[in-house]
């Protein structure tokens, strides 16, 4: 039996095992918030599938229609925002491991 909670929006679903039940595009792990954020940053809906080629324009418009759940979408965006301290930085996993070892050896 399918235990996927339905929404009233075509192509939008929730799965507790994917992003903790956050709304996603059906058949993908793409959260609605990602599409809404891209659109809010000025990307026209028709161009969003260029960066997410597994999505169709219908998926994009379904996500934008779902965005009338503003409080839910905004909360999901905030939960997933990168902390200010790491914005603009890029460190490889190898570099992070080295830094961690250096910190451990100095204490």
Describe this protein's structure.
This protein is mostly helical. The protein is built from five helices and two strands, in the order ββααααα. The longest helix is centred in the last third of the chain and has 14 residues. The relative contact order is 0.12.
What's the structural blueprint in terms of helices and strands?
Layout: E1 12-13, E2 24-25, H1 32-40, H2 48-51, H3 57-66, H4 70-79, H5 93-106
Helix pairs in contact: 1-3, 1-4
Q: Which sequence of SSEs, written as H and E, runs from N to C?
A: EEHHHHH
Number of DSSP-assigned strands: 2
Termini, distance in Å? 54 Å
Low-confidence stretches: none
Oligomeric organization of the protein chains? single chain
Gyration radius (Cα, Å) is 18 Å
3D shape: elongated
Level-1 CATH class name: Mainly Alpha
Helix content: 40-55%
Task: For this entry, give a set of tags.
single chain, two-stranded antiparallel sheet, Arc Repressor Mutant, subunit A, mainly alpha
Short description:
The protein has a single domain (12-106), classed as Arc Repressor Mutant, subunit A (Orthogonal Bundle). The protein contains 5 helices and 2 strands. It has helices spanning 32-40, 48-51, 57-66, 70-79, 93-106, and strands at residues 12-13, 24-25.
């Amino acid at each position: 039996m399918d235990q996927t909670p339905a929404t009233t929006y075509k192509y939008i679903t929730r799965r507790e095992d994917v992003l903790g039940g956050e709304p996603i595009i059906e058949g993908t792990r793409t959260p609605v918030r990602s599409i809404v954020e891209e659109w809010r940053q000025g990307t026209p809906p028709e161009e969003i599938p260029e960066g997410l080629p597994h999505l169709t324009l219908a998926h994009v418009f379904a996500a934008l229609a779902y965005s009338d759940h503003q409080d839910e979408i905004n909360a999901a965006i905030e939960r997933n925002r990168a902390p200010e301290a790491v914005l603009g930085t890029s460190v490889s996993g190898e570099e992070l491991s080295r830094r961690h070892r250096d910190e451990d050896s100095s204490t």
